[in-house]
Amino acid sequence: MTDYSKNLEVKISTDVFVAGGGPAGAAAAIACAKQGKKVFLAEAGGCFGGTSTQALVPELMNFDDGENFLSGGIGRTVHDRLFSDTPSNRQWYVVKSETIKLLYDELVAEAGVDFLFYSKVVDVITDNSGRVKYAVLSGKSGIYAVSAKIFIDCTGDGSLCAYAGADFEYGGENGTVAGATLCSVWGGIDFSKKNFIFDGCRYQEAYEKGYFSQYDGILPGIKPTNPEIGVGGGNVGHCFHVDDTDERSITEALLYGRKSMLEYERYYRDYLPGFENATLIQTANVLGVRESRRIIGDIVMNYEHFLARQVFDDEIGRYSYPIDIHPETPDRKGAAEFTQNVSKQYGPGESYGISYRALTPKKLQNVLVAGRCISADRSMQASMRVIPCCYITGQAAGIAAAVACDGGDVHNTDINGIQKRLKEFGAYLPNF
């Protein structure tokens, strides 16, 4: 241990500070700025979009419940700009990373948000009342501080809240987490010859012949992002036992993920028609993490809420997606548990409500949370973590921050006023 101290320049003073420019953070910043507030958004990487862009995840999940468009507002804008020619009926959308990257650039700039890339939250400074006074950022110019009235944590790993002293849960009872994926880009594929049901249809046979160094029977597969030139985006393989709060664990996962792609390249070439010349072009520089810290809020969304298709008085949106906990262990038991969990799905028109209290971390007076690190148990987080739901929670946090700016307390703010503004913004609130 060593002592370290430094006087920090307060480079930016703003109404609302948003940490993280993924789908939740971008939605929060856009929605808040459109309420007339001064917003500063800090993104640790070089673009907005999070997993879609930096982690190269090739799909967006459903925006609707089969009857109702749930991800209204920011989600509607994204959907209509990218997929206006595709009907909404629980559709999963293949997405081109560069296309959605540019769209986020346009939407954030149009809203008048001040932002910086390569700016990462490394600490916070709080007072004794549970108020965050400053976010401490690391950038190319050094370490500096940002002051704000309201702070929104959209980091995915809940780091701003954790640095401020918020309680959180991590993984299951034994600390295991859902497998992460190092996504990838592939070429040389003739998608017109793809006549199999799913990419893992011959995995078992290949595993028994020694193609893979560890068992991983769940293979979402390679999606046709640019089929006209034989290019696809790969959601291929898992990195197990990854601790998203430990840089050494992430380093080891990235090394394993890159090496494992050679095994999948051989599998695709030897077993699947149309993939005889499949070639790995690129792996992402950012690991696709599905599960990290879950911040404890005034309510913890849970599996019982999922089963009950819950309705809340303080709903800020509704969503509909399975319990998508990816395998935790590299064995048949992990694969079987995933299959059992993901079978818990809704019928047409069914959805669950999202309580505003899931956005308000206990102990912290002027902080909101949105996106993957929202207040939820493992089952509900596995449903709410996907991108169209991140638009819902992100824009709600942004509008709530705008309402809370005057009073400064996110726990005691005008929920009816928040819901009214959300409704005007395009949110799906049938129970308001």
Description:
Strand 11 and strand 12 form a beta hairpin. The chain is globular, with a radius of gyration of 21 Å. It has 432 residues and is an alpha/beta fold. Helix content is 29%, strand content 20%. Strands 1, 2, 5, 6, 7, 8 and 17 form a seven-stranded mixed sheet that branches. It contains eleven helices and 17 strands. The protein folds into two domains: 10-172 and 292-334 and 346-425, FAD/NAD(P)-binding domain (3-Layer(bba) Sandwich); 184-283, no CATH class.
* Highest CATH level, the class of the largest domain: Alpha Beta
Helical content (DSSP H or I, runs of 4+): 25-40%
For this structure, the CATH topology of the largest domain is: FAD/NAD(P)-binding domain
How many strands, which pairing sense, and closed or not: the largest β-sheet? 7 strands, mixed
> What is the general shape?
globular
- Secondary-structure element order, as H and E? EHEEHEHEEEEHEEHEEHEEHEHEEHHH
Under the CATH scheme, the architecture of the largest domain is: 3-Layer(bba) Sandwich
Could you name the ranges where pLDDT drops below 50 across 5 or more consecutive residues? none
Distance between the termini: 53 Å
Rounded Rg: 21 Å
| Helix-and-strand structural type | alpha/beta
Average pLDDT, rounded to a whole number, is: 96
Query: How many distinct folded domains?
Result: 2
Topology:
Elements (H helix, E strand, L loop, with lengths): L9 E10 L3 H11 L5 E4 L16 E2 L13 H10 L9 E2 L2 H14 L3 E3 L3 E7 L5 E8 L2 E12 L5 H5 L4 E3 L13 E4 L15 H6 L12 E6 L4 E5 L11 H25 L7 E5 L9 E3 L7 H6 L6 E5 L12 H11 L9 E4 L11 E3 L8 H7 L2 H18 L10 H11 L7
Parallel strand pairs: 1-2, 1-8, 2-5, 8-17
Antiparallel strand pairs: 3-4, 6-7, 7-8, 9-14, 10-12, 10-13, 11-12, 15-16
Helix pairs in contact: 1-3, 1-10, 10-11
